[in-house]
Amino acid sequence: MAMASILAGLKPVIRELAAGETLFASGDATRGFFLVRRGQIRLARFSASGCETLLFVAGPGERFAEASLFVETYHCDARAVAESSVACFPKSAALALLEGDATARLELTADLARQVMELRSALTLRDVRSARERVLGYLVARTGVDGRTIAIGGPLKDIAAMIGLAPEVLYRTLAQLESERIIRRGNGIIELT
């Protein structure tokens, strides 16, 4: 990610997690932000009634919980989807780095702005009534360099949650798009045809 070279100067604490293990819970005191080294970390919030809202699934090389540098407690739960390894960049050291390094501040600001744009795009998709158009919008927004291939790094139910569809609706929509030869599904990928 953008700050990898700058963060190389920070000494992270490495944490190994079993599948299903909680890294932090909503309300826990913040201790820093994280980088996934291996595995996947699922960030979600739960309403008072227990309804889950999936915020993000971080995979290898992805950072998360950067906002924790500026608040006292975490605002969501972070749980390992699979056996995972994460690097924790301590809050005090990261803030000291940001205070003294304008380049680090700019890179963090740019990365957080990119995340805000992605979240706004996801929120816009949730307003699309048609499941078909919502799924196609998601796929088009996630294409790789070739403009056709989407890497699927986790369970499809997480994609369904991110775009506000029931998993069954997503599965049916993907099957329909595949039968119409609009997409082709492979091992860990979906390709627009």
| Number of E strands | 11
What is the topology, as strand order, of the major beta sheet?
A: 1-8-3-6
- The level of helicity is 25-40%
Low-confidence stretches: none
**Proportion of beta-strand residues:** 25-35%
Number of helices: 6
Main sheet summary: 4 strands, antiparallel
Query: What is the average per-residue confidence, as pLDDT, rounded to a whole number?
Result: 89
Determine Rg (CA atoms, Å). 18 Å
N/C terminus separation: 29 Å
Helix-strand makeup class: alpha+beta
Q: Order of helices and strands, N to C?
A: HEEEEEEEEHHHEHHEE
Query: Overall 3D geometry?
Result: globular
Explain what this protein looks like in three dimensions.
The chain is an alpha+beta fold. Helix content is 36%, strand content 27%. The chain has six helices and eleven strands. It has helices spanning 4-7, 91-100, 102-126, 131-141, 156-162, 167-179; strands at residues 13-17, 22-24, 32-38, 41-46, 52-58, 63-64, 77-80, 84-90, 149-151, 183-186, 189-192. The strands form three sheets. A four-stranded antiparallel beta sheet has the order 1-8-3-6. Strands 2-7-4-5 form a four-stranded antiparallel beta sheet. The chain has a three-stranded antiparallel beta sheet with strand order 9-11-10. A hairpin with a 2-residue loop joins β10 and β11 (189-192). α2 packs across α3 and α5 crosses α6 (167-179). The mean pLDDT is 89.
